Amino acid sequence: MISQPNRHCTVELQALPSRIGQVRRIVSAQLRYWHLDPLIDRAALGVTELLSNVHRHASPDKQCIVEIELMLDRLMVSVHDHDPRLPEVRDADPSATCGRGLAMVAAVSESWGVRPDGESGKVVWFTLPAPSPTATLLARPSFGVAVESPGPALDFAEVEHAADALRAAHAPARSAVAG
After folding, report:
1. Euclidean distance between CA atoms 106 and 134, whole angstroms
2. How far apart are the first and last CA of the chain?
3. Buried (b) or exposed (e) across 146-178, using 16+ Cβ within 10 A?
4. Which InterPro entries does the entry link to (predicted)?
């Protein structure tokens, strides 16, 4: 189930390897929809690491909830699971293929943490600094705004071609992920 009120998105899933990739694509699409493209790589890496930890370590089950929420100046990503054991950052050998997930989350995020969630669960979260709404608006093309241009006049075909290119570049994100 995916719910997307204003600036909040929730995905419930079993933290299985095949689902982790799907959730990474959902998070990426949601951030594109919110015009937060600069945060996609770090958010996708962080959610992948947290879901991998649920897959490897959580018991009694792998059921979890991923939440992303855009606040005024930051994006919060959290993973809720049913295992009350709190994770710990470990010193991992540089050549190790596992054991560095939380250290990676700490390295790419503004802040991160963990808190108990009721009697039988926890929430592991991280935040990323979000661009200001003004910067996001300035980065987007403005349609329907008349601007005087000192340059040469464009003919209708050139304007149509430029508008089509802008529409294609800013098409809504689509996902081929089955529910």
Report:
1. 28
2. 7
3. eeeeeeeeeeeeeeeeeeeeeeeeeeeeeeeee
4. Anti-sigma-factor_SerPK, HATPase_C_sf, HATPase_dom
Rounded to two decimals, the pTM is 0.70
Peptide bond before residue 60 is cis, with ω within 30 degrees of 0:
yes
Q: Would you tell me how many other CB atoms lie within 10 Å of the CB of residue 19?
A: 17
Note the pLDDT tens digit of each residue in 80-129: 999 999 988 877 777 767 778 899 999 999 999 999 998 889 999 999 99
The Cα diameter of the chain in Å comes to: 69
Please give the residue range of the domain that contains residue 76.
2-134
Q: Specify the CATH number for the domain of residue 95.
A: 3.30.565.10
Instruction: Give the position of tokens 């997930």.
Output: 101
Q: Is residue 150 part of a domain?
A: no
pLDDT along the chain (179 residues), means of 10: 66 94 96 96 96 92 96 95 89 73 92 92 96 56 41 45 47 42
